[in-house]
Amino acid sequence: MDAIRQHVRVTFSFPVCFTTGVFDPGNRLLRDLIADTDDPKPASLVCVIDAGVAAAHPSLVAQVDAYCAAHADVLHLAADALIVPGGEAAKNDPAILASIHERIHAAALCRHSYVVAVGGGAVLDVAGYAAATAHRGIRLIRVPTTVLSQDDSGVGVKNGVNGFGTKNYFGTFAPPTAVINDVAFLTTLEDRDWLGGLSEAVKVALVKDAAFFADLERDAARLVARDPEAMRAVVRRSALLHATHISNGGDPFELGTSRPLDFGHWAAHRLEQLTHHALRHGEAVAIGLALDCTYSYLTGTLAEQDWRRVLDLLIALRLPIYTPELGRHLDPPDHPASVLRGLAEFREHLGGRLTILLLRSIGDAFDAHDIETEGMIRGIEVLQQIAAAGSTSVIGPRLQVAASIRGSS
Ligand SMILES: NC(=O)c1ccc[n+]([C@@H]2O[C@H](COP(=O)([O-])OP(=O)(O)OC[C@H]3O[C@@H](n4cnc5c(N)ncnc54)[C@H](O)[C@@H]3O)[C@@H](O)[C@H]2O)c1
Ligand SMILES: [Zn+2]
Fold this sequence. Notes:
Blueprint: E1 16-19, H1 29-35, E2 43-50, H2 51-56, H3 60-70, E3 75-77, E4 82-84, H4 89-92, H5 94-106, E5 114-119, H6 121-133, E6 139-144, H7 147-151, E7 161-163, E8 166-170, E9 178-182, H8 191-196, H9 198-208, H10 210-224, H11 228-248, H12 265-274, H13 281-298, H14 304-316, H15 341-350, E10 356-361, E11 364-368, H16 373-389, H17 398-408
Parallel strand pairs: 1-9, 2-3, 2-4, 2-5, 5-6, 6-9
Antiparallel strand pairs: 7-8, 10-11
The structure holds nicotinamide-adenine-dinucleotide (NAD) and zinc ion.
């Protein structure tokens, strides 16, 4: 074979910072992050802002202007801030992606310039994708403004938009230059977004850190009561666990099929589609976690006591564990509106071999490749009963639930 063997080694390093009042002119964090690079100064930047954030923080655009003016030796605001719709609409409408590319182009940004994206996970995903694809990559600083984007999505290396009815069909792996988590943004979230992002913290605790899970149990009431200190601690720990997995997990760009951080996500992504995004990502993840933990219990890998703790925590955090779309059209499992089609979609997304994470105990997960649809259907029935009763106590001791599945598998 006549071949030139290429070895391309690239190392990425970026900080995930925690602050309050990021655009307060007296706060030097953003300025220093940009001044830290070796480029000629001042650096050009364009700000992309989630409309939901702009509405909840009416002086934000003026603050960004004042911040750049105060630090004009380092920062050059190359265009007016671009306000884009928040939520999943940002990833569904190609016109929004185009508007960000247009603003980047009009502002004549180059590969040494910055897109500063301020918003929830959806706006960060589309702005990140626009930045990664203009000039093959403009520097990105993420300022996540939801619990979910601060404790999970914003600290990662992925971005993307939806296409062909599929979540994140288009996207790139493109690490940001920096992430700035400003806890002050969280105060204006609707309750469902404040709580919804906690599902990703529960997820990473289940997969990686039993002690964190116990802390979430201990602090559930404070979190529901919107205690900022309790939330700050959860966001930081979850962000650290996510970031550590990405840098030390051995597969930052997801070339393999094992996806610990996607625990519960095969059903979650499907439910987002089936509900036409009426269910938010974090809410859908809570249901997906409830389902895969219940399946783990029913098929005998997860102890009953641990299973009840998981469901009890999700309920205590006021997260959903069931939605009617979960229970519809389960037979045949490939019905176009069946959640079970999510298994096939996930297999395709992974590239051939189905790999679903299941739980052995809280903090200890493993990859499974054979999933019994009957077990999933049984799990869905169990979740429906628990959701209707609002408590796991409606389900009797282990064998009553587990017998039929164990007998049939
Ligand atoms: N790239 C990744 O690795 C990754 C990981 C997980 C999730 N995601 C994506 O993240 C998205 C979900 O993100 P999300 O949960 O942050 O929700 P979101 O981005 O859909 O935002 C939810 C709502 O909150 C509003 N909002 C945002 N910040 C606000 C604030 N501070 N005050 C008031 N309102 C505010 C938004 O305008 C929107 O209406 C999904 O598209 C999901 O696929 C991406
Ligand atoms: Zn997620």
